[in-house]
Amino acid sequence: MSRQQVSPMTSNSIVFIHGMFVTPLCWEGWIDYFQTRGYTCAAPAWPGRDKPIETLRANHPDPQLGRLTLGDIVEHYASHIKTLGEKPILIGHSMGGLVVQILLQRDAVAAGVAIDSAPPVGVFPTQWSFIKSNWPTISPFVSKSQPYYMPFEHFQYTFVHTLPLKEQGAAYDKHVVPESRRVARGPLSGIARIGFKKQRPPLLLIAGSEDHIIPAALNKSNYQKYKGSSSVTGFREFPGRTHFIIEQKNWEEVADYVLSWLKEQRN
What CATH code is assigned to 13-262? Predict the structure, then answer.
């Protein structure tokens, strides 16, 4: 971890940011966990995701979803943050983790936690599992305007490959919705450019050792880009965790670590 920031973090407000292929429902347990510990929590949906999962699936292929970009999502959360009474803590997963990294550069956030964060510009993925997991959405041979509805077999590989089959099916049925290919390609665009040496609020990056779509080594490379910064930057890899880390069995251990880290930032 790099050097401590000058002023302690005082926020009691948390905004959760979900990732691709899911909705805010993925944060259900986390919201309850942090609210019972004194935090005010919100989990706004991405633009267009404030509908029942059945509706989102039935609307596929939705032209409006096909136009959604990473920039749209970033500005959506930036606008939400402006409505709050204090600078919030951001906790994001996957593409939501990258949104956390981007928004942390603005003077509107108290701290950030990026779990299995998608790689920003300058963090180069070379792992085969990353390429295999992301190819259906980043392939140049498919129109970026055509939304992608991940089949169960691909969800198994990318999100839940170590889980029992029954749990894999339950997770797919509960969460998976069609996704924008434009969002998937957003990490390659200017909106995903990070000023790694820029002074900013504290940031914690978390990885799962068994993650296929955002391998732990990729998370580690993301973290190492911040080495030249004097701002607080933490990293923790959790063994046995897949990309489903925020709902996988014993997810509370991850939440416990995040809670402890946030308490450290108050000292």
Answer: 3.40.50.1820
